[in-house]
Specification:
- By secondary structure, the chain is an alpha/beta fold.
- 24% of the residues lie in helices and 21% in strands.
- It has an 8-stranded mixed sheet with strand order 4-1-9-10-11-12-13-14, sandwiched between helices. A 4-stranded mixed sheet has the order 3-2-7-8.
- The radius of gyration is 20 Å and the shape is globular.
- It starts with 21 loop residues before the first strand and ends in a 43-residue tail after the last helix.
- 42% of the residues are buried.
């Protein structure tokens, strides 16, 4: 019998009757992602390139929302959706397919869905996006009502653009986890990330972290960031990740799991979702880094962003598979033994998960 990914609740040991209805809140833009894979090289100007694989799935903030929901966290998303077929597809996929709470989301008449085309090759990706900013909702608030009371919220910080909802969520007890995008201004001024003061954890990649801290080493960048936020996590690609808990002085470093990457789209979002899950469940810092890295490694072996996110079934299948390898666990993977306490003891076949497919939908079930 396949493991039911919904049945495993990572927060079962810490839940109480007075807890919020939702575990995690997030907001942002939902894109329709169209992904081309199997390209041998970057497209050449003036030529036509054929991709060996293609798929489509909800993207943008949907990547993070899906990753959180598949790991068993009750997820609330506030986003705008177009009233076109793309928007309808994304809404149904997230609400019906992934169980994400969309009560704070809205469909906007006459507004078309943003679209991103992503081309994956040589372990990297190139993207082209199109869309228009969604009209603001009626009234003064950015959401139908104040962000709900939740355990945590995930935000993407923007230099010089504080988001009022982050302070509101933090004021109601939410633990804020944040990443950051590329600073197009080139200033890389940490003081410009005003909402960092509300964050419990900040998770930039190595390039971002070193630019913001004016350091030349990811580990030094993490130590510098820990002076501004309780927990600083710096992701280092194939080298893994490094974290510093500024409250206790604890540090942790976990190497990446070597895999053959098909498409890195959404891997950073999956990593954050894994770290959030472990933090809310109360795991040790090193276990949180390991789990986040594992979920990201599993995601890049499938194409697409949101629909490549692994659930507990995929985690269980991976752990049972590496334990069954001739000669025992490969060197370094013994550190994932903490999964034994989380997963059922019996072996499970990998269940069929919903993956990105090369069409918006079939007229008949296939």
């Amino acid at each position: 019998m396949a493991l039911d990914p919904v049945a495993l609740d990572p927060l079962s040991r810490v839940r109480a009757a007075s807890d919020p209805r939702c575990d995690v809140f997030l907001t942002g833009t939902v894109f329709l992602d169209i992904i081309f894979t199997g390209l041998d090289s970057a497209p050449v100007r003036g030529t036509e390139s054929w991709a060996r694989g293609m798929g489509q799935s909800p993207g943008g903030v949907a990547n993070m929302a899906t990753a959180l929901a598949r790991l068993g966290l009750r997820t609330s998303l506030a986003a705008a959706f177009g009233d076109d077929f793309y928007g309808e597809y994304c809404w149904d996929t997230l609400e019906q397919g992934e169980g994400i709470d969309l009560t704070m989301s809205r469909t906007i008449p006459g507004w078309h869905s943003p679209v991103t085309v992503s081309m994956a090759y040589e372990g990297e990706r190139t993207m082209v996006s199109h869309g228009h900013e969604a009209p603001p909702p009626a009234g003064s608030a950015p959401f139908p009502h104040c962000p709900p009371r939740v355990r945590a919220a995930v935000a993407s910080l923007e230099p010089g653009r504080p988001a009022e909802w982050i302070a509101s969520a933090a004021g109601r007890g939410a633990r804020i986890f944040a990443d950051v995008g590329w600073d197009d201004s080139g200033r890389w001024d940490l003081a410009g990330l005003e909402d960092l003061s509300y964050c419990e954890a900040f998770l930039p990649n190595a390039g971002e972290a070193m630019r913001y801290t004016r350091t030349d080493c990811p580990r030094a960048a993490a130590r510098a960031l820990a002076e501004h936020v309780p927990v600083a996590v710096v992701t280092m690609g194939e080298e893994g990740s490094y974290a510093v808990d500024g409250r206790t002085g604890e540090t942790a470093e976990v190497p990446a799991i070597a895999v053959e990457a098909l498409d890195p789209t959404g891997a950073g979002d999956v990593y954050v979702a894994g770290f959030v899950t472990g933090t809310l469940a109360g795991w040790p810092l090193a276990d949180r880094l390991a789990f986040a890295g594992l979920t990201a490694a599993l995601s890049v072996q499938e194409f697409g962003g949101s629909l490549s996110a692994p659930g507990w079934a995929e985690v269980a299948h991976w752990w049972h598979a590496v334990q069954a390898l001739p000669g025992g666990l490969p060197l370094g993977l013994e550190r994932y033994a903490f999964l034994d306490a989380l997963l059922p003891g019996q072996r499970h076949a990998a269940p069929a998960r919903r993956r990105a497919v090369p069409t918006i939908g079939f007229r008949n079930a296939v």
